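Appendix B, Record 12. Input sequence as logged:
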Amino acid sequence: MTWEYTQPVRILFGCGKKDEISAVAKREGLTRGFLVCDKFLAESGLAEALSADSGGVLIGIFHDIQPNPTVTSVDACAEEIRKAGADFVVALGGGSAMDVAKAAAVLAQTDDSVVKYHGTGVTLPESGLPIIALPTTAGTGSEVTPVSVLTNEEKGKKAPMLSPAFYPIVAIIDPELTYTVPRKVVAQTGLDVLCHAVEAYMSIGHQPICDALAIQATRLVFAYVSKAAVGDKEAQDQMALASLLAGLAFGQPKTGAPHACSFVLTTRYGIPHGEACALTLDYFLEIAALGEPVRLQDFAQQVGFHSVEALADEIRLLKKSLGLLTDLKTFQLTDEDIQTLVKESQRPNMLNSPVRITEDMLFTLYENMC
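Logged structural output:
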């Protein structure tokens, strides 16, 4: 057995930690911060409150970010950061704000458009402005990963970019920031956490530390996501922890087939990311068990189920009980639509499965959902 584990992000966890931005910046020798968040957080007053409490450390804000963040937003954000003369970036929000902030923090030190790097194979710069990340949803785990997922609307392409420069220097996880998230979003992001954890364990790049994190994150989701979705604050605290652990779990093994399929489901049909990932999770879990029966049986038992089949059944029940999609019937897909889904689901992270995912498997998956 050989493996490597790296986690360069300093993590601060606890209620009230959001008030420590200026102290963290001072400790890191940073003085001019630029806040990146979504429009809702800007209009809710949270971004303004954090800026006011920062003692003048936060000098600007960018909030023109879509739910599926675009390369256009990244370029605009990077330009605003350059103009402000910022020496660090604060990423506040869910995955969308994090994705834009990460990419913009790197691009702001260049004159490049992110289009040069998005899905082209061109290597990103090795460094960028330091990032302090504050997640407001219990979902993406983006505060501890080197990943930015962006959409090029002109090309109709959604794809991840990876760079060590995307790692924040500090992640501040304050569960209080998740307390006002709408119930449906709590459910969607909560199942994104589950996907991160299960996909990390299923990945051919698995390793012991990430396995342990994945197991604990999975246990927490099953125990708390339903309670968190109805506003139970203790449960929301635990889901914030689960999101962090799952982010640490998949950062190196990477995600797999459910995430590969999610990109086209989100781009073509507007299904929110976490819901799109969860839509196929149970199916791919059962497929993966054909290649790693002992390993995945052990996983199922460690997270509280007697078999992989029982675990997959519980995932299906959980989606239904949370009011999330369990099929694609509402979209009335044609055979041509299904063939397009099959073709566009063949993303690089599909290769992380312990079983080769064929076009026939994908066709069967989508056909059964219709």
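The first strand starts at residue 10 and ends at 13.
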